[in-house]
Every structure is written in C-alpha cells, then in structure tokens.
Amino acid sequence: PETTTKVQSVPHFKEKYFSQILDHFNFNNMGNGTFNQRYLITDEFWDRGVGPIFFYTGNEGDIWEFALNSGFIWETAGLQGALVIFAEHRYYGKSLPFGEKSFRIPEIGLLTVEQALADYAVMITELKKQLDATECPVIVFGGSYGGMLSVYMRLRYPNIVAGALAASAPILSTAGLGDSRQFFRDVTADFENYNPSCRDAVQEAFQQLENLAQHEDYGHIRSAFTLCKTPGSSQDIHQLKGLLRNAFTLMAMLDYPYSTHFMGNMPANPVKVACDIMLSGKNLLSALRDTVGILLHTTTALTRMFKLHSKCFLLFVLKACTEIEMCFESNNVTDMFPPMPFTEQDRVQYCTRKWGVVPRPGWLKTQFWGDALSTASNIIFSNGDLDPWANGGVRKSISSSLIAVNIPEGAHHLDLRGSNIADPVSVRDARRKEAEIIAKWVKMESKKMF
User: Fold this and answer.
1) Is-contact 122 145, C-beta < 8 A?
2) Which Gene Ontology molecular-function terms are recorded (predicted)?
C-alpha cells in the first residue's frame, strides 16, 4: 500500500552572500582577493542573542538541495531556539571563486578540504559579529562528505565549534583505512538481505554482460539495454558497467521508506522495488535494464540528472584525486557487480592524465587524525545499517562524548531528513538521542559563555 507522507513545513530561508577570502593560506598569491559565497539563513526559531547557531557544512552540490532535505536540523532548531545557516561549499552551486573560469587549471587548485573548512570558520566568526551572537554556541551538521567536514570542523576549529553531528560520514574509508572491497560488498548485502535470489540474479546478469563484451557482441548489448547507439570499444562497456553499478549503489544509499527526489527520483523502498523487477524479468539482461530504469527511467530524466550532477561529480572526482581516497573495487565474487579493480596505481594514472595532479596517499589521515580520534570530543557519528558507506565510518563509541549512533533501518543520513510518518522507530529514536546530546552540548557551552 502507498504510504502517506507527512508534509514537512520548510522554514523561510533568506539567500545571502558572504564576501569570502579566495586563498586562506597564501598571503602573496591572491592577496586579499575575495569571492561571493552563498548561504541560506533563517532566524524564525532563534532566541536572538542567546540561542545556539546550527550550521550546515555544505557539501558537493547546490546548497538548496541539502537545505530542503535536512528537516531534522530546523525541527531541532524549533525546539532549541536556534539560528539556522546552510553554507554552500566553494566551487558548487553559485559559490564560484572565479566565475565560469573556476573549473580551469590552475583556478581549480583552490578546491580543497582545508580551504572549505577555513571558509566556514571565517563565515561563522564574521556572521556571529554581524548578528550580535558572539556568545552563541555553534553546532555543525553535515551528511556524507558534509558530515566529514563537520567532523573536521570540530577537530580543526574547536574554538569556534562546540559540537558536530556527522551523519553517514565515511571518515575512515576515505582516509584509506579498511578493505577496498567492503563498499560494494555492503551494497550487495542490501539486496541480498531482501532476497538472496536477487543478488544471484544481478550477479549472473553482470556475468552475461561480461561474456558478451569479451566476444565483442556489442549489437546484442545495445539491443538488451536499449542503448541509443552501439558500443564501440571496451571503454564504452566499462562506462556502461559503471553506470549500472552506480545505479544499484544509489538505490542502496537512498533506500528510504518513502519516495524522494534527492539525487534523482526514487520510489519508496527502492531495493525492494528493484529486486521485485529483477526477479520477474523475462531474461536477466532485460531485467537488469528495467531494474536500473527505476532510477534512469526516462531519457529526459537521465539528461537532466546528468546536467545537474555531472559537474558536481567531476569536482568531487578532483577531490578524490588530491585528498579523499576512494580506491573501491568490485569483483563479482564478494559482490554482485562486474570485476572493476581500481588500485592506487590506477588512481595515479587517471589523476595525472585528467587533472595533472599526483595523489598523496595518507594525507587525509595525517591532516584529520584517521582513526586516532580519542583526544577529540563532542562529535556524534550516526550511521544507518542500510547505508553502504556506514562501515567506512565510526560504528562504535570512542568515549562519552565521541558517540556512535547506529540506526538498524536507516539508509544514507536518513536521520538528517525531516520527520515522516513512514520513518522506522530506529530513526525516530536516533533523532531523539541526537537532539538530547546537542542540547547538552549547548547547555555546557552556554554556561562557559554567560
């Protein structure tokens, strides 16, 4: 039966721009050059001058997309009298340091984690002065890469940030820690846990695709997947396999109990929907095509999604070439996907060719502590068991103030989304716990200030 969705009332955000420093770490190269960094702000819940500031550390995309899909933040702000700010990450949305030239080399060189964190630190400090809020505690929030940034803000700027909620933040796997096969093994587990036959069918479908590709039967592949044109090379097939694998990954990440339009149009419980289609197809390749069609359901939708996300994805790939380590591989043995190795050597070759940069393995671990977090404090690490990124994050509490919140029925940062009547009890409990911890941090920090 179709689930009735509770309509979440979106607060009135004002869209503003902050004059931000181009290069925080070089006083000669850019001098005092600035760019306009976009942020969204609402004070409709704020106990002015006293209540906390809830600050979202924007990640790889237009800031409105994150603001409209993070209802927990403003729901909690309403209970705790907080000012709410969503800051856009440099080089995304309308926050382009060099306008249309921002994506060229060498202008793209100022796209780093460190520059983004410094942006947020400067913005928080200056806005607190402008709003006469210098004594108001700041709690940062973020999901996925944005959650990583929230962790790093607390580590790097504890003088500015009193606490952080990092939802679905894979701070360990992206620092090069863990098993490179874990991610796609966990994507597979989502489908396997619904129905083991689903995993088997997908695995066999990819094996059939691999066999056709090895025999260069490209016409058959075009027909099976209803492609616009016939693949002409092994590289075309590699891209097709990557597109198919990514579709399953998104369905696992966004396995919410209600339909969403975040990162594409997704039905409620997409893993279940996908498996039901996969197991009812006439043959495995057409079933694979129809299953992926849940996400890429029309040419128009696919084109729109590509235009919206391709530049964001390309920019994130650059970060994966410099600081963030994402050498994840599939092998069709421990997972259901085609063998697609991606080693550190592959990373170096790609990044050198595409961006003219050589990755520095271990740099993120050096900069932001890796798994040696015991001397930090006031961070919530929330992860959902349905999220394939979860095991790349912190799953066990490290101390009384470094708290892991695990959500058995949660997908990718579901706890950051607004309340919905379809939410499982586990996510409601997680939000309640998170709000209580945040209130405690605010109270402790306020005692120091007032």
Assistant:
1) no
2) dipeptidyl-peptidase activity; serine-type exopeptidase activity
